[in-house]
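Objective 1.3, modelling of assemblies. Example input:
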Amino acid sequence: MRVRFAGLAGLVALTASVAALAASPALKPFERGTWQSVLKGHAGRPVLVHFWGVTCGPCKVELPLLGQFAKDHPEVDVVTVSADLVPNLPGATQSMLDKAGLSSTENFIFNDGFVERLRFEIDPAWQGDIPRTMLISREGTVTTIEGSAEMGDLEKWSAQQLAKH
Amino acid sequence: MIRTGLLAILALAFAQGTALAQMRAPSASEAACEEPTLRCATKATPAFGPDGTLWLVWMAGGQVSVASSRDEGRSFSAPTHVTTKRLSLDWGPDARPKIVIDRNGGIALAFSTFRDAAFNGEVFTTRSADGGKSFGELKPITASNESQRFEALALDQDGTVFAAWLDKRNRIVAKEAGQKYEGAGLFFTSSGDGGTTYAEAKLAREGTCECCRLGLAFAAPGRPVVIFRNIFEGGVRDHAVMTFTDVATPGEVRRVSNDDWQINACPHHGPSLTVAPNGTYHVVWYTNGKARKGLFYAHSRDEGRTFSAPMALGQPGRNPTRPYVLASAKGTVMVWKEFDGEKTSVQMTISRDDGETWSPPKTISSTSDTSDHPLLVSNGKQTYLSWMTKADGYRLTAIEDQP
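Predicted structure (tokens):
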């Protein structure tokens, strides 16, 4: 960058932070209103939103499978949301995402102590059980898979999305 | 172009900065503050002592503390810190410290911690023999250090402390044998010295759901009864009770209800059980099964062999959660949470005929931020709602008599 920023230490620090962000997307805080932003941000594209947590046994098994699915299906926007209670653990969350091959997907972490309100915005019937996967079609139709998803079902759904395109 | 690019970068940088700041902001925490005081507690568990003193054990600021109140929770004694340093306490939705107080005023505690980065748990116990002024050294409840969570404590008439928990020690055995290991084992032990030392842990049942709290009570002297989310054939995570023959001998697994919730997940939402003075089991639970969804109540008058038809609780559009039931000589009370999009309320219903009929649900407390599970506690004369809230602090609310 040739523009003279050198004297502005604060800005240098900020741009360094941005550079780091570009290299490895940080976890984004999931707060009030984030759910609607996610829906709007991906409108018109098939989206898979996966809710999970670092203390959930079945999630640990499923996450790497989802990493492979994301790699095999660039046509599907994969979004993950760590939905454990706050205090949530960004370090452990990022580490598990990295190991599962999900470093470059859009990854959120619950960041509101009032989790009931966050969950209510997503689905008033959801009581917090994880893993949970929401498949959102181009038309906005939501299919919710409670518990671990069968990869075969995800393959079938993504094939349907491609066929409709 | 450069200008636009720079602006975009700066905007991004500031957005990122804001996001990071928000990640650290206290408002994002479940706790109102970070000190080990009651005001900062995320989970507080009550018990009445034999002299009518209310005792609370809570977790706050990574520590476990206790204090007592002689004025129905309006004021508390200076807290006694049970832990001496900040620990990685189990902060799972269904975890909380446990407390029982024997007839001599001895206080037995248990709580779970995360002992490693993989969130394997370890349950610790301790006891106070001087009326809560000091507590003994923390001791693991069992010699196995594989993983334990969701401990429950109950006091028998003769002062024996019975403990049950979920334990994954046998996953090693299964792995070595090349077998799949599902869920966790229901383990138990008991203490004949008020919770100072516990007998060797024993397995009651393998293949239970690994992430839900247990319900524990005594069906009769010497006969503990546990309710737990079992894993039935086909991965169906429905509820079961087990009545022990004695504190060292597990009984049969008896299904509470056929909800048909086949799921490979952590519901983080365990049941509650109480045994009425006449021996009736009252149970409440959450399911999202094919047969029914939501909160349900049932009772059994034959030690869990048969249960009444499940009765739905709460308004389905208001996400009813966290049910709790407590029977006393004056009636059986149930509470649970509901959420209307902004506020969480505690709903209460009471039965005067041993669970046959129930009063219309009534809102007895509400709060505008996050809250602990609503719990019930009785001093033998009066039943109270015990509820820790982030916005309004700790509340003890007498359950009013219903017409």
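The radius of gyration of chain B is 22 Å.
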